[in-house]
């Protein structure tokens, strides 16, 4: 299993569980997480979803070794939902989503915070949006959600630089609401999730809907622009150089790109 699911006090906890791969999303994990969100949305006994990771990472983003196979192997079989399906499930998820970043978060492990109703982060966690270092475009509507969350210049730095962002920087920007010592992260996240879960589910859904509805069309438009740009760049010279460098354990050389 790549995803652990547990229920307590109307909170469904989803734990990304590929610790040997730093919880990187392969097609199996994308499918499992999307299915879990769809199931939680439909379950009348679930009021809140809490998402976190097992081991020392939250998520290292998309599995780059699998991404390389997707870019080079015409016979690669994609999952049922994949990355796009997970983003759709996040866009449509009607209940509060609490994200507890327990360790490093790269790519979707960082941009998923754009969909968090409450974001928490361990003091030892770090975030990175490595798109320019991979020769690709932003993802998960982060080109729209991050400027809305943190302002244009902080968002531009996060999305353009591919540099690490500390927990304190993330809190100062507004990417997360709470920063905790590692041992306090999950208890704090669960306490906040359970507080929300004691409220009427219909009211929680109504509050979230009225907050997110004005942005839904813009989020979908941003996602479509990003997907088009990503498809254009994936498999291109810069992306293939980045993936080859990752597989070979060296720094990429973009001087010819």
Automatic annotation (TrEMBL):
Top class in the EC scheme: lyase
Primary location group: other
Domain of life, source organism: Bacteria
Alphabetically ordered keywords of this record: Isomerase, Lyase, Peroxisome
SUPFAM superfamilies according to UniProt: ClpP/crotonase
GO function terms (MF aspect): delta(3)-delta(2)-enoyl-CoA isomerase activity; enoyl-CoA hydratase activity
Pfam families, A to Z: ECH_1 (PF00378)
Protein's cellular compartments: Peroxisome
Entry EC number(s): 4.2.1.17
Ranges in coiled-coil conformation: none
InterPro entries (UniProt xref): ClpP/crotonase-like_dom_sf (IPR029045), ECH/Chromodomain_protein (IPR051053), Enoyl-CoA_hydra/iso (IPR001753)
Name used for this protein in its record: Enoyl-CoA hydratase
């Amino acid at each position: 299993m790549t995803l652990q699911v547990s229920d307590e006090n109307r909170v469904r906890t989803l734990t990304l569980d590929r610790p040997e791969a730093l919880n990187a999303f392969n097609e199996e994990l994308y499918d499992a997480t999307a299915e879990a969100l769809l199931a939680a949305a439909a379950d009348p006994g679930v009021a809140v979803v809490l998402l976190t990771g097992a081991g020392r990472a939250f998520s290292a983003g998309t599995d780059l070794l699998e991404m390389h196979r997707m870019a080079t192997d015409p016979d690669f079989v994609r999952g049922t939902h994949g990355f796009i399906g997970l983003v759709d499930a996040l866009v449509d998820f009607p209940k509060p989503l609490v994200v507890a970043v327990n360790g490093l978060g790269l790519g979707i492990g960082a941009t998923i915070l754009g969909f968090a109703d409450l974001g928490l982060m361990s003091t030892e966690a770090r975030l990175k949006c490595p798109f320019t270092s991979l020769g690709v475009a932003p993802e998960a509507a982060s080109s729209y959600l991050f400027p809305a969350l943190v302002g244009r210049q902080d968002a531009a730095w996060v999305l353009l630089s591919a540099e690490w962002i500390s927990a304190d920087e993330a809190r100062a920007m507004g990417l997360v609401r709470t920063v905790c010592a590692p041992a306090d992260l999950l208890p704090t996240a669960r306490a906040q999730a359970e507080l929300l879960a004691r409220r009427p589910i219909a009211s929680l859904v109504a509050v979230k809907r009225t907050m997110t509805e004005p942005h839904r069309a813009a989020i979908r438009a941003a996602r479509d622009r990003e997907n088009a740009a990503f498809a254009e760049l994936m498999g291109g010279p810069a992306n293939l150089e980045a993936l080859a460098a990752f597989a070979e354990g060296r720094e990429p050389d973009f001087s010819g790109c």
